[in-house]
Design brief:
Number of strands: 6
Radius of gyration: 21 Å
Shape: elongated
Largest sheet: 4 strands, antiparallel
CATH class of the largest domain: Alpha Beta
Order of helices and strands: HHHEEHEEHEEH
Helix content: 40-55%
CATH architecture of the largest domain: 2-Layer Sandwich
Strand order of the largest sheet: 3-4-6-5
Structural class: alpha+beta
Mean pLDDT: 89
Low-confidence stretches: none
CATH topology of the largest domain: Gyrase A, domain 2
Length: 148
Amino acid sequence: MKNARQAAILSIIEQNDVETQEDLAKKLKDMGIVVTQATVSRDIKELRLLKVLSASGGYKYATADKAEHGLSERFVRMFKDSVLSISFAGNIIVIKTLSGSANVAAEAIDSMRLPEILGTMAGDNTILAIVHSEAEAARTVASFQDML
């Protein structure tokens, strides 16, 4: 019963912008699953659902991976808006940004979780990204430039 109910919850939030626990309980009831608000609350906690900004400007429930995807898209937008140039020497990628924007752009890179990037370090307007090899640096720079 619990697994079926939680599967229904995931299906509902995937297909609808559900803002409140009450809305979720109503949608479950419409599917023939009668629950209390306390049960919905426990399910939300167990499923690790998060409230994220919806396209309409309100908030909705989403799974952590969906929330992270939205956050990653925002970081990519900030990366595009702040990067001025990208180059590399050996296995070190040097990214120049607008003044004060390096931390945001480095967070965007980190959020991409690219396996070739060993780590990043950001100053005020410069990011150093370390990769395994010069060949990976060239490929990574090309992919960053494609994003711009």
